[in-house]
């Protein structure tokens, strides 16, 4: 597509439920990144994909968080047993390759855990 | 660990005043660094990259290897420059700086 697309744009969920956030990167972009932006906080790196593999998962805050990428394209970030502190805007970005250029960001998914 | 740091969380200047948003890095060699901007209710977007040595919206940033800095500068701030600014590496580390919220007052 023309840009990085994320869905849903907004998600309200009850504490304890699982959620899935989706990212469609720019076609042909091999690298994909997930970040989290909490109110009043900066960008927190979560995970990075090169193709379908995730060389760096070090930013995932707990084992409730997982992500996968299939076909070198769409990625899904899953949060299990959501907690209120998971409330944030989850941003996805893609780039042509890790060694080239910069990131193109999606508009994010605003997750609210009630 | 290699990092970028933005020491100021908040920065406020008056319209027409010069502005400098600080970014320091701790990478060895020649890092590839970018500035990203997020205007209110818009997505994060690339402002400029050091490798292209360009000026975007009047902003410039020079990589100073001696001071390990990549400060973002504009000689005359405008109200529409009010936004969140992030200094970011590209390559081996994908951790952005903490960000500086710039407010340009009329």
Structure, described:
- The complex is a heterodimer of chains A (114) and B (106).
- Chain A has 114 residues and is mainly β.
- In chain A, 0% of the residues lie in helices and 50% in strands.
- In chain A, strand 9 and strand 10 form a beta hairpin.
- The termini of chain A are far apart.
- The model of chain A has no long low-confidence stretch (mean pLDDT 91).
- Helix content of chain B is 0%, strand content 41%.
- In chain B, strand 5 and strand 6 form a beta hairpin.
- Chain B contains no helices and 10 strands.
- Chain B is mainly β and 106 residues long.
- Chain B is globular.
- A 5-stranded mixed β-sheet of chain B has the order 2-10-9-5-6, with no helix packed on it. In chain B, strands 3-8-7 form a 3-stranded antiparallel β-sheet, with no helix packed on it.
- Classes of the chains: A mainly beta (114), B mainly beta (106).
- Chains A and B meet through strand 5, strand 9 and strand 10 of A and strand 6 and strand 9 of B.
